[in-house]
Amino acid sequence: MGVLAGKEIVLGVTGGIAAYKACEIIRELKGEGANVTTILTASGSQFLTPLTLQTLSKNPVVMDLWNLISESEIGHISLAQRAHLLLIAPATGNILGKIRGGIADDMLSTVVMATAAPVVLAPAMNTQMYASAAVRENVAVLRSRGFLFVEPDEGELACGTVGPGRLAAVGKIVEMVRIVLAEKILKGKKVVVSAGPTAESIDPVRFLSNRASGKMGFALARAARRFGADVTLVSGPTALADPYFMKTVHVRTAEEMQTAVDRESADADAIVMCAAVADFRAARISPTKIKKDGGGWNLELSPTVDILDRLGRDKGRRVLVGFAAETGDIEQNAIGKMRKKNLDAIVANDVSRADIGFESDDNEVRIFFSDGEVRELPLATKEGIAVGIWLALHGKLFAR
Ligand code: C5P
Questions:
Q1: Cβ-proximal residues to 274 (8 Å cutoff; 6+ apart), any chain
Q2: Angstrom distances, CA of residue 53 to CA of 92, 106, 192
Q3: Looking at 64-159, which runs of residues are DSSP E strands?
Q4: Are residues 196 and 173 part of one domain?
Q5: Which of 134, 159, 205, 283 is catalytic?
Q6: Are residues 142 and 257 in the same domain?
Q7: Confidence check: pLDDT of 365 > 60
Q8: Mutate which of 252, 273, 304, 349 for ligand 1 pocket (most atoms within 8 A of beta carbon)
């Protein structure tokens, strides 16, 4: 179950052209099991009809502070109290000013004032408005009061201007909601996760790599971020977009991955090496494309550095977790690797199965701990497995 299941989210929609994106936000939040109640401001209703929001949210849309019927059922105080989170997307310059100034002259501004729940603001406005002294100051003051922001993206705005001001991507806004609502079991922890394959060049056009998609490592990084960790993702080449709200370091070769992991993990509490690092690279990289001559070709390979093995020799107080992609004798191979590399735990998966592992969206793993305990995580999405891995690691390794 995702972090949004059963959560009460109040979504404020204010009067900007980006208001239409609120529809997509509602669908995403509801799709993950949240109950969404929308408050539409008077100017918001110029862009979007309450019927649209009501149909998508399957809840009455709250608009009027002075409507006696709706006030008796979903009044401003009960809305403010039952919300686990209040999200305003899009947030206009006007609503930022009202919140900062302590004005409560309509339903949305009143609920903001009355709630103790976290408030996430996703501003969207013309570049010049966003850059104005008033808005800059309002954002700074609201931040200092604990309001959370999802900064607007840069791009072409509806008014034709190009610059910052466009509502952040819906996926980014929803990710912030997940981060705010998730339990903070990894708060204060610095975590480095590696993901994806590495690619070892043979010549300017050819390389050696493997089938790792990066999905498991990216899911682990996202889950750790939601659990409150400070996360750095070190990724080999993948087709995936960088996860939001963390630092992603892109590398290509095993050597580059080692440099990046070493640099990023000096003060880490945990390093989870999920990457399928190449074990061999070309002994020599040809500077020019190797020509075919009709005959065969022997490629000489040299071993790469084993990053985990090196980390295990100078482990310090860091929690070290490896992955073992196996096609047979899973338990024996995984435990052997854990011991040899001096790890605290190893996550083993059977990559001979087509339904899980490489490229798949699903996985099924066993976690072997150095004290002999084994945890099984049955078939689930990689997102779900990632949550399970962190819960297991937290229970066994961090809670001490
Ligand atoms: O020994 P094997 O390569 O199967 O071990 C897999 C684990 O070791 C994974 O966690 C992988 O990220 C890590 N590894 C590494 N450096 C390598 C090869 C593997 O850190 N060169």
A1: 193, 194, 195, 216, 217, 220, 323, 347
A2: 18, 18, 40
A3: 85-91, 119-123, 148-149, 153-156
A4: no
A5: 159
A6: no
A7: yes
A8: 273
Domain finish residue from 149, 181, 213: 181
| DSSP-derived 3-state class of residue 174 | helix
Name the pTM for this structure. Answer: 0.93
Mean of pLDDT values over 313-342: 95
Q: Whose CA is nearest to atom 2 of ligand 1?
A: 324
Known active-site residue 274: no
Of how many residues is the chain composed? 400
Q: Is residue 1 part of a domain?
A: no
Q: Please report whether residue 316 resides in a domain.
A: yes
CA 6 to chain centre: 20
Residue 351 sits in the same domain as residue 246: yes
Q: How far is the CA of 341 from the centre of ligand 1 (A)?
A: 9
Confidence tier at 250 by pLDDT (50, 70, 90): very high
Residue given tokens 């001979």 in the structure block = 352
Q: Which atom of ligand 1 is nearest to the CA of 261?
A: 20
Mean pLDDT, residues 45-66: 92
Mutation choice for ligand 1 from 256, 277, 310, 318, CB with most ligand atoms inside 8 A: 277
Q: Which of 160, 102, 151 is nearest to 130 (CA)?
A: 151
How far is the centre of ligand 1, averaged over its atoms, from the C-alpha of 277 (Å)?
6
Nearest by Cα to 13 from 70, 84, 58, 61: 61
Same domain, 148 and 276: no
Q: Which domain holds residue 218?
A: 190-398
% residues pLDDT > 70 (the chain): 98
Give me 264's structure tokens.
Answer: 């990023």
Closest residue (by CA) to atom 19 of ligand 1?
Answer: 277
Atom of ligand 1 nearest to the CA of 324: 6
**297 and 319 belong to one structural domain:** yes
State if residue 323 touches ligand 1 by the CB under 6 angstroms criterion: yes
- Measured CA to CA in angstroms, residue 335 lies from 52, 256, 324, 332, 347 at distances of 55, 27, 9, 5, 10
**Residue 73: per-residue pLDDT:** 62
Q: Give me the phi and psi of 231, to 5 degrees please.
A: -115, 135
Span from the CA of 275 to the centroid of ligand 1 (angstroms)? 7
CATH of the domain at 316: 3.40.50.10300
What pairing do the DSSP bridges indicate for beta strands 362-369 and 374-381? antiparallel
